[in-house]
């Protein structure tokens, strides 16, 4: 029998340690993300954000097609709220779900991975589908993109194909904020094909399309200050001063 993870309600009732609370929050977000990923795959699901207040918990679902997430007259989002409330033990009125639109879907690895998955399921050639995704991502303003497809692509022998463009970092702390990664599995007739999409986001001071902080090796050369013209010194006699 599967144990029910701690939600914010159960954590309030039980006085658990901070260590357990952090683990419980991580498990809750991971399970919620997995559920929404399966449920809203066709609606361009991109990410989920959880905001906690003393009175209630707010869950913001980021997707490219918010109208489909909300459903007719908000029916679908009410169904999702009910399902999540029952699964994690939230009381009525303590959980709210919102849908937020992803304006630049070209910088969302999950959205592009799902797009590639449906292209392959539709019978499009692997090379054509991958190059199409890479081109669309780069046109959306990304610094770099990498698509890896592995499995039985044409022959019976499994192989891996890599498609990339632009600049991509693979190590260091900036990978946490700059690199967006998504992995999906496509169930085709010849077997399972794995697809992995990595997108390097651009630097954005506003924080909308990319991280605010610059890369550590980024050097900005300031414009030189204008030279101040110093006047020629003059000799003044003591008599003139008196």
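Sequence proposed for the structure above (242 residues):
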């Amino acid at each position: 029998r599967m144990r029910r993870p701690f939600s914010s309600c159960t954590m309030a009732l039980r006085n658990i340690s901070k260590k357990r609370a952090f683990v419980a929050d991580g498990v809750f977000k991971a399970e919620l993300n997995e559920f929404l990923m399966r449920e809203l795959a066709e609606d361009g699901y991109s990410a989920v954000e959880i905001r906690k207040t003393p009175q209630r918990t707010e869950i913001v679902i980021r997707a490219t097609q918010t109208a489909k997430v909300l459903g007719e007259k908000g029916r679908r989002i009410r169904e999702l709220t009910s399902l999540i409330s029952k699964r994690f033990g939230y009381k009525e009125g303590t959980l709210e779900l919102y849908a937020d639109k992803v304006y630049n879907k070209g910088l969302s690895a999950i959205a592009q991975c799902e797009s590639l998955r449906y292209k392959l399921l539709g019978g499009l050639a692997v090379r054509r589908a991958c190059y199409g995704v890479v081109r669309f991502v780069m046109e959306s303003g990304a610094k770099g993109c990498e698509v890896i497809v592995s499995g039985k692509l044409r022959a019976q022998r499994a192989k891996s194909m890599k498609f990339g463009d632009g600049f991509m970092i693979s190590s260091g702390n900036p990978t946490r904020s700059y690199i967006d990664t998504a992995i999906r599995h496509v169930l085709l007739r010849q077997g399972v094909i794995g697809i992995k999409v990595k997108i390097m986001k651009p630097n954005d001071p506003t924080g909308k399309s990319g991280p605010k902080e610059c890369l550590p090796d980024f050097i900005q050369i300031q414009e030189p200050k204008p030279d101040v013209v110093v006047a020629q010194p003059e000799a003044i006699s003591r008599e003139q001063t008196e």
